[in-house]
Fold these 2 entries.
Entry 1:
Amino acid sequence: MHVSIVGSGYVGTTVAACFADMGHEVVNVDIDEDIVDAINAGESPIHEPGLAPLIDEHAGSRLRATTDYGEIVDTDLTMLCLPTPQHEDGSLDLGPMRAASESLGEALADADDAATGAHEDANPGTDSHLVVVKSTVLPGTTEDVVGPLVAEAGGMTVGDDLDLAMNPEFLRMGTAVSDFLDPDKVVVGATSEDAAATLRALYAPILDQDGTEYVETDVRSAELIKYANNAFLASKVSLVNELGNIAKSYGADAYEVLDAVGLDDRISERFMRSGLGWGGSCFPKDVNALRAGARDQGYEPGLLDAVVAVNDGQPDRLVSLLANHVDIEGARITVLGLSFKPHTDDIRKSRSLLVIDRLRERGVDVVAHDPVAIENVREYYAERNGGSADSATDVETGSLTFEESVAEALAGVDGAVLATDWPEYDDLPVETMNQRILVDGRRIDVDRDRLDAYDGLTW
Ligand SMILES: NC(=O)c1ccc[n+]([C@@H]2O[C@H](COP(=O)([O-])OP(=O)(O)OC[C@H]3O[C@@H](n4cnc5c(N)ncnc54)[C@H](O)[C@@H]3O)[C@@H](O)[C@H]2O)c1
Ligand SMILES: O=c1ccn([C@@H]2O[C@H](COP(=O)(O)OP(=O)(O)O[C@H]3O[C@H](CO)[C@@H](O)[C@H](O)[C@H]3O)[C@@H](O)[C@H]2O)c(=O)[nH]1
């Protein structure tokens, strides 16, 4: 099939490369020329295991990228993989979805004009264009916002020459390629049988796999399934963290406790790791969007409010724990791990950034290390501080510097906190630390005998 994917970020790039690998002809459309150039040069614009080889293999043949929306016209369907960030109040920001929907409609209208009156679509057997929302959006967005915007800009009619579907994505950063190619489930909400059939054909190469469920439902349910999934997982981690905080207060070990609890197959042992809590580009904004959406619907989501409150408290607990071991005012402390989880350079809503802020507010000079995310963090602080990446000039707070090697990051420091459980931290070169103190927010596999003091957030 010929597939166009609008938005080539973490999801759009992964999905495009995977569809190309499945045998489809794919074009990525993005407004960011650097991303487009990288893909066309056969390079991955992001750090994601397994992605670079796929782009290298398919770029220039089954995979292309462009800034030109006109290229969607000759494709069987257009999948929207645009950001759906949150407003300051936590509610869903549909700005990028609206802008892209209008651009898409305009491109389809231009093609219609060019095709001497009748819109020629590549979709075999139909003369309508299928728009599939893959971004995470609240119920109603596909049918009440995206559809009407594309239709108006394109001079089209939903159900006639415009078809809609919603196909949420469940991949995780760090394992995105394998999650996409070997998913637990594919969820599709389509507005017509033609749209449903096109999506079945699109996913056919992976549907024969054992263990992949194909769920067909209505569009609003498909939209809500994505939020319910993330809300459930975020709640599980917050519950585990609450139980972990209680375990520590009793001098019990949360990992021993929860490993045993997870043996109950109604609960499962997965997603039971207590510690610094959840970050990333999805859980924080999606839980907030669902809370705001529920309130709009007249429902008070008290449980989800508490889920966020527990999560928000964990970075402060980590810093308090460190203060039990180190006189932190004026201390030099290493923060190990900056990405929101291992095996990705994604730092969006990373707990590490909150820990760094809390430490610096208390006058700590922070030395930060990460195997792949340092550049992104430099850019983040440069943007926040109006140009100064290391911001060592900040007089109110401690400084922030970056070290490329773990050994250099630990040399001469008064203690370290572990924020992201990269495997690189399993065998820490602690000998050169001024004080061999480690406060662990993720329960890594470290040789505690080589440390003067080791403390865990919930154990
Ligand atoms: N990151 C994940 O792990 C993940 C997993 C599942 C679902 N999702 C959802 O998928 C969606 C995309 O997430 P992401 O992490 O890939 O976002 P992202 O920010 O990494 O990428 C979005 C891309 O869209 C491009 N873009 C913005 N406006 C555009 C426009 N008008 N036209 C064309 N391109 C435009 C940006 O340049 C960027 O490359 C979100 O709704 C997210 O919640 C994300
Ligand atoms: O037992 C656990 C598991 C996870 N986390 C934290 O939870 C966050 C999210 O982790 P994970 O779910 O592995 O990563 P994401 O890439 O954010 O993936 C989530 O968000 C995506 C975007 O919506 C969804 O597609 C995925 O299904 C969903 O797992 C990270 O900060 C983890 O450190 C824990 O603290 N303890």
Entry 2:
Amino acid sequence: MPRRSPVIVITGTPGTGKSTHAQLLVQESPVPLQHINVGELVKMQGLHDGFDEEWQSYTVDEDKLLDQLESPVSEGGVILDWHTSDVYPERWADLVVVLRCHHTTLWDRLETRGYPLKKIQENNEAEIMGIVCDEARESYQPGIVVELESNTLEDMEENVARIVTWIEQWIKDNENSGMDNENSESE
Ligand SMILES: Nc1ncnc2c1ncn2[C@@H]1O[C@H](COP(=O)(O)OP(=O)(O)O)[C@@H](O)[C@H]1O
């Protein structure tokens, strides 16, 4: 069954603004969207093999995670918000948004969040090197991956407006392709 609403992956180094973007997008979207904060889901549903004290993060059980996400993704109308995007099957994503942030701004945001220094440094380096972006580009067709700046509130409003326009187009395209299928079936 084709999806009636798209699946949007929002990824980026921690602190680039994924959750904030996702929350605004839920409000602005022309179709209902469910925001899944994948990191929170892993924690709340125990989809992990324990907590890594050194890195202050959970060791994710990917099979359990994918099982949990399968049903909402197949329904569509979902935002998958996580700092990595290469775990999902490629067919899941209709759009992959990679948020980017200036590294000094990111440092401040992660400091405010109370991250340990080592974790701030690691994420800061990852952002400078564009690790999350490279990973997204290696995992998906280039046409569905979009890199957006997320330094200011203006950036965020523009980004969300762009994604809303993309959703409107996706809905139109998919209504049309649904009609094409019906026509070709009746021929
Ligand atoms: N484009 C932006 N402009 C200003 N502040 C932002 C922007 N994006 C995120 N922030 C702020 O940065 C912090 C981290 O954002 P968050 O959405 O939690 O990041 P992530 O989900 O990627 O870890 C929050 O305090 C948020 O308000």
